[in-house]
Design brief:
Layout: E1 7-10, H1 24-37, E2 42-44, H2 56-70, E3 76-80, H3 85-98, E4 102-105, H4 115-127, E5 133-137, H5 139-142, H6 148-157, E6 161-166, H7 172-181, E7 186-189, H8 195-200, E8 205-208, H9 215-226, H10 230-244, H11 252-263, H12 279-294
Parallel strand pairs: 1-8, 2-3, 3-4, 4-5, 5-6, 6-7, 7-8
Binding site for pyruvate: 207
Keywords: Lyase
GO molecular function, one term: 4-hydroxy-tetrahydrodipicolinate synthase activity
Length: 306
């Protein structure tokens, strides 16, 4: 399969039954909705996918189910987030053996690695596989920033590293990276509340969260923004923003799963230690979702711009 890092790539939630098993039927329903909306890839096992609570067997199952649904039409990308370098290498090899077509790679977990250690970690994984790699740069949540100098070193020594999930929350970084690397480094925004802004500044794609509940709206914002139909994109985005803000929260998984319930694309089930929202916070989130559903816009034709 030939593909590139671009378009909307959902960071999929993991669906569970009320007995804490994988709900593959509901997972498939969501994947089909994503593909029908026009996403360009599927990302499994990220923070939103509750990957830290999944067993290796469950990750294998989700990968194989997603690959069957994608059927070679779009890539399936597996997230790698490990503490030990050897575990990250093993996870990358396991994803490749299952048939994944790309990796999203975080810096080492828990230990705050130096720049030299972080680059060495990334290089060890890149050297272990031929899969294309998207580096997830999120210093806000994970404490390690992948700087332009570090990307320069990676791009010059690791041919499989080709993209960044830009989550520094500094919109000028899109331009800063483009100025330095041109098309050598594909840029995908990883912050929902900077989705349209990043696209208009030249980002190649959007690794999105609320897309799990609102796939068509997310892809429409991307496609219309890329096509220069800014007024149409902005109109959808203005409606969307209160929902997108649910993604920048420690409880983003619970928030987005509530939104998936509202659109019929998921359930509220999370895996402990996470628990469903309750009380005033649940009512606050539900208020945002109810208002959005009551005002949900009719979308213009957008797929022609993909």
């Amino acid at each position: 399969m030939e593909w590139t890092w671009q378009g909307v790539m959902p960071a999929l939630t993991t669906k569970f039954t009320d007995s804490d098993e994988l709900d593959t039927g509901l997972f498939v329903k969501n994947v089909r909705a994503q593909m029908a909306a026009g996403v360009s890839g599927l990302i499994l096992g990220g923070t939103l996918g509750e990957a830290s609570t999944l067993t290796e067997k469950e990750k294998d199952t989700l990968t194989l189910v997603a690959l069957k649904e994608a059927d070679g039409r779009i890539p399936v990308i597996v997230n790698i987030a490990e503490q030990r370098t050897s575990d990250a290498v093993q996870a990358a090899r396991r994803a490749a053996s299952n048939g994944a077509q790309g990796l999203m790679l975080l810096p080492p977990m828990r230990y705050k690695a130096t720049s030299r250690e972080t680059v060495a970690y990334f290089r060890a994984v890149a050297d272990s596989t031929d899969l294309p790699i998207l580096i997830y740069n999120n210093p806000v949540d994970y404490g390690i920033e992948v700087t332009p100098d570090m990307f320069e070193e990676l791009l010059s020594t690791c041919p499989t590293v080709g993209a960044v999930k830009e989550s520094t929350r500094e919109i000028s970084n899109v331009t800063r990276l483009r100025n330095r690397f041109g098309d050598r480094l594909r840029i995908l925004t990883g912050v929902d509340t900077l989705g349209l802004e990043s696209i208009l500044m030249g980002a190649d794609g959007w690794v999105a969260g609320l897309v799990c509940a609102y796939p068509a709206e997310t892809v429409a914002v991307y496609a219309l923004g890329k096509a220069g139909r800014i007024a149409e994109a902005r109109s959808i985005y203005q409606w969307f923003l209160p929902l997108l803000e649910l993604d920048i929260s420690p409880q983003l998984v619970q928030n987005i799963k509530l939104a998936e319930v509202a659109t019929g694309l998921g359930s509220e089930q999370v895996r402990p230690p996470r628990l469903p929202l309750e009380g005033a916070e649940r009512e606050r989130v539900m208020g945002i979702i109810r208002k959005a559903m009551a005002q949900r816009p009719e979308l213009p034709q957008y797929k022609q711009y993909l």
